[in-house]
Design goal:
The protein has 247 residues and is mainly alpha-helical. Helix content is 79%, strand content 0%. It is built from 14 helices and no strands. Helix 1 (2-22) runs parallel beside helix 3 (37-49). It is extended and about 70 Å long.
């Protein structure tokens, strides 16, 4: 048993030392890992690896979600106070982001439009956020116009996300051929399952059920490739679509 633990510790120790060397970390970490295998490896993980890992981002999001659940309007209140004290574009944009997240779309649109002026009239992040606010508020034509401004000024800004939003806008406007063309382009390129799922829904609505089911099955088949909770939501929705067909 002791021998197994020794071998396991040595493997872990070597792995961490190799990671430190390969990633160009300070060489002091290699000595710490060698001289104090258990404590050194733990210290290296929590000080060098964890802060930049997916787990850390997931944990940070969960802490943020818990804070919002305990005080749902705390962030909105803080952002409002910041704008009252200093109505800078950054502060107003941050308040608009919070309003968008809260579903206060009219207020978000007003704030974004107010920011899109002067040197910020073609700001890529503001244009994209404003287009989202218009879309979720049901102002689909305005969302299309804002996206056109974004593509003209910054054709590469968050290209896939912007095209997915554009496809959803076109679908909402009833321009299904154009929406289908964009979804098809995103089918293989878009990272994650959302584009495939939304494309599948459009195909199903257009009566192309075999093609839609093919996309839903592809999402389910590749479910294990993503551990992200947000991606698993699309997997659940795809399974629900397939179960409704089976029923």
């Amino acid at each position: 048993m002791a021998r197994v633990l020794f071998i396991l510790t040595a493997i872990i120790q070597f792995s961490f030392a190799f990671h430190a060397l390969k990633t160009g970390r300070d060489q002091k970490w290699i000595w710490i890992i060698i001289l104090a295998p258990v404590v050194g490896c733990l210290a290296y993980y929590f000080m060098e690896v964890f802060p930049h890992s997916r787990e850390e981002r997931t944990l940070r999001k969960r802490v943020h979600d818990i804070a919002k659940a305990l005080n749902p309007d705390g962030q909105l209140k803080r952002r409002t106070e910041e704008v009252s004290n200093n109505a800078s574009v950054d502060n107003r944009a941050a308040l608009a982001d919070e309003c968008l997240e809260k579903g206060m779309f009219d207020e978000a649109i007003r704030l974004y439009e107010g920011c899109l002026d002067g040197p910020y009239k073609d700001d890529a992040r503001l244009l994209f956020a404003c287009a989202r606010a218009y879309f979720y508020n049901g102002n689909h034509r305005q969302a299309e116009e804002i996206l056109a401004r974004l593509v003209k000024a910054h054709p590469k800004f968050r290209r896939d996300e912007a095209q997915l939003l554009e496809a959803r806008v076109l679908e909402a406007l009833g321009e299904n051929p154009r929406a289908t063309e964009l979804y098809e382009a995103l089918r293989e390129r878009y990272v994650g399952f959302e584009a495939k799922y939304r494309y599948g829904l459009l195909l199903k609505r257009l009566g192309r059920e075999a093609e839609a089911n093919e996309l839903f099955d592809l999402i389910i088949k590749n479910a294990r490739r993503s551990a992200l909770e947000s991606e698993q939501e699309w997997v659940k929705l795809a399974r629900k679509e397939r179960e409704s067909v089976a029923a």
